[in-house]
Amino acid sequence: MIMQQPPFRDPAAPLRDRIDDLMGRLTLEEKVGLLHQYQAPVERLGLGAFRTGTEALHGLAWLGPATVFPQAIGLASTWDRDLVRRVGAATSDEVLAFHHKDPAGAGLNVWAPVVNPLRDPRWGRNEEGYSEDPWLTSVMATAYASGLRGSAPGTLKTAPTLKHFLAYNNETDRCTTSSNLPPRVLHEYELPAFRGPIESGAAVAVMPSYNLVNGRPAHLSPLIGRVLRSWAPDDLLVVSDAYAPGNLTSPQNYHDSLPEAYAHAIKAGLDSFTQDDDRSEATLGHVRAALARGLLDERDIDAAVRHTLSVRFRLGEFDPSTPYDDINDNVVNCPEHQALAREAARRSFVLLHNDGLLPLRDVTKLAVIGQLGDTLMEDWYSGTLPYAVTARAGLAERCATTFCEAVDRVTLTADAGPVTADPAGGPLRAGAAEPGLFDLFDWGGGAYALRAVATGRFVSVEGTTLVNDQPGPNGWEVRQTFRMEERPRGTHALRHISSGCYVGVAEDGVLRLVDDADQAAWLAMDVVRSGTDEAARLAAEADVAVVVVGDHPLVNGRETEDRMTLALASAQDAVVRAVRKANPRTVMVITSGYPLTWTEGDLPAVLWSAHGGQEYGHALAEVLFGDADPEGRLTQTWYRSEQELPDLLDYDIIASDATYQYFRGVPLHPFGHGLSYTTFAYADLRVRLAGDVLEAEVTVTNTGERPGVEVVQFYTHQQRSRVKQPLRRLRGFEKVRLEPGESRTVELRLPVADLAFWDVTRGRFVVERAPHRLMVGRSATDLRLSARFDVEGEVIPPQSGLLRAADHDEYDAITFVDETRQDGDAVRSDAEGAWILFRQVDLTGAATCVARAGSTEGGMITIRLGDPLYGRPVAAFPVPRTGRYDHHAVTASLQGVDGVHDLYVVFEDEGVTLTEVDFGAGA
């Protein structure tokens, strides 16, 4: 007798019907079991275990050797949608290969791409994102996610998850800081990066971030249900970040108990708890407690489980077969993926400066110099390199090369005697007759690493003992880096960065960590071989010197650690200066996950790339020797100093003039910058409005003597507005390959609706009636042609009646806070005299106004006309003492005022919260 399959296993049935059928078969307890990252099997229905969360940011990560592509910031610097999509597709192939071999170890819900706009390059995770521009971020994320999800109709290859929602660009205190997000910044800058990949269906899941936004944990954001899910064409799965749900009680102290916190999270839209690794019982116990206490009901559980099951169905889990069943181990690091890794690395290189030295010609002897010259780095979210083509290896295939790391070789001597390293990799000891030798690596930001010459292994800390057994800085908790603190007589104390402890010498001579700085050993560090001297000597003997400098992805900025400076490590900077002095034909090659600054201003050529994966050296050689034109363009502004940046926690890019859109200074290198080995001319910019679309075209000609690649970039600027507008904003781009003398017409079609900005007076996007300028060129500041066009949009009328405090026009000394735990934004004063401004308020006929406000200490609010200090006061409100979320209505008469005015709401006291002011009540 043939058993009939249940309807949920019928691939011909509509997806909604299949989900409904399976939901109807599950008990409440079985549904609860599906709310954890490690979803429990339901054996009676034939449902297997399912796990969310396979890392695949630029190749499959954490599961063993797999193809490693350039970092995400490097992929974006290609400005090539199709290439990024193909990298995503190759990555999903390898995820599936691992999954077919080990379904439990390699799940099909992949946690990539990262779409946080890179507003501040000091963010420790800068290399994980794509761009400081939200639209370009959206374009690249959509491309990568499209490759991950596959092209088979109706079946997901993998299930891409966007990270991290919302306003997350700091690692410093990331679980307790709140990102201040005014409405315009939210709608014009943060949300657009998420919208494209969700709305297109490329991404099918989202992960909230660790931080709070306007005082509310991101995991509890009402925007998850109200905005993100409104964009999604299908069910959108929301997975928590690791251990973030537990933060809701401590350290965030947002809820008193985990059942309350978890109930709130589920109601806000969270579907899957990434908590306690594979130990789900505690988490699910809190969910059960929430059900028992009436904080949740079965409908809330059903909503979350439906989102999860929808993704599992679309992955083909309950189908007899999928189009991807035949993918196997043969695809992992296959020749095609190796070639793609090489292509991606080659196209990601950005030529920052060139006085004609590049491409290299007539070179018979090349000096390769620098800490990064013969190594490739893995970052926290990269895969395990199956092989590594370093700069030295790639260039050695092209001509004779010499090499030095250009690091100082030193001895260390304590009071007890010289320090030596155990040849077997064991403890370091003081007291030997002859000193041991150590190579000193400067990774910037005051972070140093020591490598024992005797073993070729790096000094690390095991327990509290210094040993020498590591290949380099590595791991989640990097234990191989130290700071050097000056002590008397030219000595230094070593402070272990990870633990904060000092290096001391125990009675047995072993170097161990001590808590007290007074117990730290005073170490004399003597240089026995100068890295800069060796580099200069080698450079002087070569036709060309290539100095490879940059960062270590796990040091001086990474997940959990922001960087305080953009400066190249001082020792590396000194090497560059010495090499340039020794050989005028010097190329500086920067390998980093973020923009850098340096002091040598007379370098003939500077080339940048992110950490480029396994084929980096081959790609570098192809670009240096001119086999390929440097195609990359910057997707971030390179500032001259971190002093040009606002505070790391200042998320208001509009008020702080941040990113290329608002920055008024002259950057070291602008957004969109990148040179070619040829030259290009722009001509005949033609612009017209055709109904609701702006149409433009420009002719680009290769005016040089060799083939080249140009990235034609279109920007707009609104020239008159009620509000502060970006100085320029990227609207489109096209990458063109041109032979010498060849011309091509590049077109832009921009919906006029895309020119809208968020109107705080009415809470919606609006296209203003205004003149605009379209600009086209090679970067955000190298704009070759421009043309004016006029848009017949709206005229924003004066505002009146109820004004939400968060929807103001300008502010000073204000923090955005949560109006209630569930929804809404309010403002709180950070100092006496703080204020918010409402422009053009129509008070005609208004006699009174009502404010909803509160303060734990009480206070006073004054409304002034035209100026927060000297403007005429027209109303004053005493603010009562209240609880955190108790906002009371207080009424004041309007004195002698009529017509339209700019109103300053001035907080006379610190700690006053305001939700709204109503000029229509009782008028």
UniProtKB/TrEMBL annotation:
<comment type="function">
    <text>Catalyzes the hydrolysis of a non-reducing terminal alpha-L-arabinopyranosidic linkage in ginsenoside Rb2 (alpha-L-arabinopyranosyl-(1-&gt;6)-alpha-D-glucopyranosyl) to release alpha-D-glucopyranosyl (Rd). It is not able to hydrolyze alpha-L-arabinofuranosyl-(1-&gt;6)-alpha-D-glucopyranosyl (Rc).</text>
</comment>
<dbReference type="Pfam" id="PF01915">
    <property type="entry name" value="Glyco_hydro_3_C"/>
</dbReference>
<dbReference type="GO" id="GO:0045493">
    <property type="term" value="P:xylan catabolic process"/>
</dbReference>
<dbReference type="InterPro" id="IPR006584">
    <property type="entry name" value="Cellulose-bd_IV"/>
</dbReference>
<comment type="similarity">
    <text>Belongs to the glycosyl hydrolase 3 family.</text>
</comment>
<dbReference type="GO" id="GO:0046556">
    <property type="term" value="F:alpha-L-arabinofuranosidase activity"/>
</dbReference>
<dbReference type="InterPro" id="IPR044993">
    <property type="entry name" value="BXL"/>
</dbReference>
<dbReference type="InterPro" id="IPR002772">
    <property type="entry name" value="Glyco_hydro_3_C"/>
</dbReference>
<dbReference type="Pfam" id="PF14310">
    <property type="entry name" value="Fn3-like"/>
</dbReference>
<keyword id="KW-0732">Signal</keyword>
<protein>
    <recommendedName>
        <fullName>Exo-alpha-(1-&gt;6)-L-arabinopyranosidase</fullName>
    </recommendedName>
</protein>
<dbReference type="InterPro" id="IPR005084">
    <property type="entry name" value="CBM6"/>
</dbReference>
<dbReference type="Pfam" id="PF00933">
    <property type="entry name" value="Glyco_hydro_3"/>
</dbReference>
<dbReference type="GO" id="GO:0009044">
    <property type="term" value="F:xylan 1,4-beta-xylosidase activity"/>
</dbReference>
<dbReference type="InterPro" id="IPR017853">
    <property type="entry name" value="GH"/>
</dbReference>
<dbReference type="InterPro" id="IPR008979">
    <property type="entry name" value="Galactose-bd-like_sf"/>
</dbReference>
<keyword id="KW-0378">Hydrolase</keyword>
<dbReference type="InterPro" id="IPR008999">
    <property type="entry name" value="Actin-crosslinking"/>
</dbReference>
<dbReference type="InterPro" id="IPR036962">
    <property type="entry name" value="Glyco_hydro_3_N_sf"/>
</dbReference>
<dbReference type="InterPro" id="IPR036881">
    <property type="entry name" value="Glyco_hydro_3_C_sf"/>
</dbReference>
<dbReference type="GO" id="GO:0008422">
    <property type="term" value="F:beta-glucosidase activity"/>
</dbReference>
<feature type="domain" description="Cellulose binding type IV">
    <location>
        <begin position="797"/>
        <end position="921"/>
    </location>
</feature>
<dbReference type="GO" id="GO:0031222">
    <property type="term" value="P:arabinan catabolic process"/>
</dbReference>
<dbReference type="Pfam" id="PF03422">
    <property type="entry name" value="CBM_6"/>
</dbReference>
<dbReference type="InterPro" id="IPR026891">
    <property type="entry name" value="Fn3-like"/>
</dbReference>
<dbReference type="InterPro" id="IPR013783">
    <property type="entry name" value="Ig-like_fold"/>
</dbReference>
<dbReference type="InterPro" id="IPR001764">
    <property type="entry name" value="Glyco_hydro_3_N"/>
</dbReference>
<dbReference type="GO" id="GO:0030246">
    <property type="term" value="F:carbohydrate binding"/>
</dbReference>
<feature type="domain" description="Fibronectin type III-like">
    <location>
        <begin position="710"/>
        <end position="780"/>
    </location>
</feature>
